[in-house]
Automatic annotation (TrEMBL):
Coiled coil region boundaries: none
Residues annotated as domain DUF2207: 59-237
InterPro entries: DUF2207, YciQ-like_C
Signal peptide: 1-29
Keyword Transmembrane helix: yes
Keyword annotations of the record: Membrane, Signal, Transmembrane, Transmembrane helix
Name of the protein in question: DUF2207 domain-containing protein
TM segment ranges: 262-285, 438-456, 462-479
Length: 588
């Protein structure tokens, strides 16, 4: 027969007695199984320590004083099993809102023992908790009494018309607590008391709580607490009893790191001043260009034709104009220079017969003409076009065959074009160098701002100051593209160029000119039309030249059955194809 069956056959009275006898053993086994090992356990007999260590009694006295300081005296009777000490965990920080934590401060920690228990106290913060360790010199066994005292700030707060003291007076143990008791006093009648037992946020009442007959003390007790459970006591005092207030600290999170305060507000204001100063600087530098251009524009707005003579505005060449206008040596500027070299007799452009070759292509052929009047960038470009990869000269090259060393040489052309506009006195410094310096400075400032923002966000509430630096750096890098400034001479040339562009956009040559003269003038203007992107409009001036017996230009030859009536489309396609070939090989 099983023990359970035998027990069931007992009389009710005997059953009660047997059950009462077994209950302590059951509770003891469950309690021992739930006990955890303290950090300060020695290496000897860890299993035995886990099974027998416990707090036999924890008696806490809390005295609320002026300034909201609560003096706590805690008498602990601890059952040791070979450890040097024990530890207790206090919850000293609670998240009150997204940006603030309510904090509780423990100070003046000290311990004593009347029977040889541990008395060395140390504390450390671990997130929202403070761990207090009390240790001795040697391993201890048996019950020892330790008196732990500390000052508590932040436990008293105004709640309605009362000053409320709320504190987990007992708990945070890693071992069971057999008996817990707390007493609260404050030198004034206590209006109300309450207490809770269990997890920290528990709303379950404790075993017993009441006030003494004079209502000057609150008394609380709880039996059999498990590891990690708390006894939270609450006492309400009349207003003004202690003058205590809850303590709050800003939380270290994204919301607080990027908050607006005196430091970040000053940084943002400084950013606005910096950006305003940058705009003023741009106006002084770029605005000077605009003022001179506006003043000289009327002087340049006329057709640069005098009888049968043609002169570009101020003798400026197409590639120079393109670099002057947008301060960059673009693909279109190089393409216009190629057309200009052909118009001036250094190259012959031959359009391949698409019906024969199966594709649209052109041949650039060298013409025998001295290079005495070529500018440095034009000479570099001509050599790049008509040189083999090994550096030897060639008489012709197909547009589709450009490649190899051409990309490197073309980068030299671009550099020479920047040098030329400085040599002409249109810029004090190379535009690309000015842009690069400002852009590099802006990128460096942005990276510094990113690093600073991360560091400030992790350690302070001034991350917006770092963000201001990032914005300033990005603005500097962007604004650096507009920092190259023309000299007064460069702005004057630009003003005449604007007038010249207006003339080309009108697409009208002086009346009365012979067809051949009109074609010559058209050719001379065409490279500038390429720069200004008005080839289609400018080609309207010779659309009827094929009907008047002109089927080719001296610098451009089309295939059979080709005449000038088709030239506008041929030139549009040529410029697009040339720009595409250049950009393909040099990554522009």
């Amino acid at each position: 027969m099983s023990a359970l069956a035998a027990l069931c056959r007992l009389r009710p009275s005997a059953l009660v007695v047997a059950t009462a006898a077994l209950l302590p053993l059951t509770v003891g086994a469950a309690t021992e199984a739930s006990a955890t090992t303290p950090d300060d356990r020695t290496a000897t007999a860890p299993g035995a320590a886990a099974a027998t260590e416990r707090v036999l009694k924890d008696d806490v006295t809390l005295t609320a004083g002026q300034g909201g300081v609560t003096r706590v005296r805690e008498t602990i009777v601890y059952q040791f099993a070979g450890n040097k000490g024990f530890r207790r965990t206090f919850v000293t920080r609670a998240h009150d809102s997204v940006t603030e934590d309510r904090v509780y401060k423990l100070g003046n920690l000290r311990a004593s023992s009347p029977d040889g228990g541990p008395t060395k106290v140390s504390s450390s913060g671990e997130g929202t908790r403070t761990v207090v360790r009390v240790t001795g010199r040697g391993n201890l066994t048996g019950a020892r009494t330790v008196v732990l005292e500390y000052d508590l700030r932040g436990a008293i707060a105004l709640l309605g018309s009362l000053e409320e003291l709320r504190w987990p007076a007992v708990g945070g143990w890693s071992v069971p607590v057999t008996e817990a008791r707390a007493t609260v006093s404050g030198g004034a009648p206590i209006r109300n008391v309450n207490c809770f037992a269990g997890p920290l946020q528990s709303t379950i009442g404790c075993t017993q709580f009441y006030t003494n007959h004079t209502h000057t003390e609150g008394i609380y007790s709880q039996q059999q607490m498990l590891p990690g459970e708390y006894l939270t006591v609450v006492a309400g005092f009349p207003p003004g009893t202690t003058g205590g207030k809850a303590l709050y600290e800003r939380r270290r999170n994204v919301a607080t790191a990027f908050s607006v305060n005196a430091v970040t507000g000053t940084a943002l204001l400084g950013l606005l001043v910096l950006l305003g100063g940058g705009l003023a600087a741009l106006y002084l530098l770029r605005g000077r260009d605009a003022r001179v251009v506006g003043k000289k524009a009327a002087e340049g707005d006329h057709a640069p034709v005098s009888g049968s003579e043609f002169e570009p505005p101020d003798g400026v060449r197409p590639g120079q104009i393109g670099t002057l206008i947008d301060e960059q040596a673009d693909v279109i500027d190089v393409t216009a220079t190629i057309v200009d070299l052909a118009v001036r007799g250094y190259l012959l452009i031959e359009e391949e017969d698409r019906a024969v070759t199966g594709r649209l292509d052109w041949t650039l052929r060298r013409l025998d003409r001295p290079q005495v009047d070529l500018l440095p960038y034009e000479r570099i470009l001509l050599d790049a076009l008509l040189s083999n990869p090994d550096g030897s000269a060639r008489d012709a090259v197909k547009l589709s065959a450009l490649g190899g060393t051409f990309a490197t040489r073309l980068a030299q052309v671009r550099s020479a074009m920047y040098d030329d506009v400085v040599k002409q006195g249109w810029f004090a410094r190379r535009p690309d160098t000015v842009r690069s310096r400002w852009t590099i400075a802006g990128i460096a400032l942005t990276l510094l701002g990113i690093a600073g923002t991360v560091a400030l966000a992790l350690t302070t509430e001034w991350a917006l100051a770092g963000l201001a630096v990032i914005i300033a750096g990005a603005a500097l890098a962007y604004g650096g593209q507009y920092m190259p400034a023309k000299t007064a001479r460069g702005a004057t040339v630009l003003a005449h160029t604007i007038g010249f562009r207006a003339f080309l956009e009108r697409g009208v040559l002086p009346e009365g000119d012979a067809s051949r003269q009109r074609i010559a003038l058209y050719s001379r203007f065409l490279p500038y039309a390429v720069v200004f992107d008005v080839v289609a409009k400018w080609s309207e001036t010779v659309k009827d030249a094929g009907q008047q017996g002109a089927d080719n230009l001296y610098w451009y030859e089309g295939p059979a059955e080709w005449d000038l009536s088709k030239f506008a489309e041929s030139m549009r396609t040529f410029t697009l194809t040339t720009s595409g070939s250049i950009s393909q090989y040099r990554g522009m």
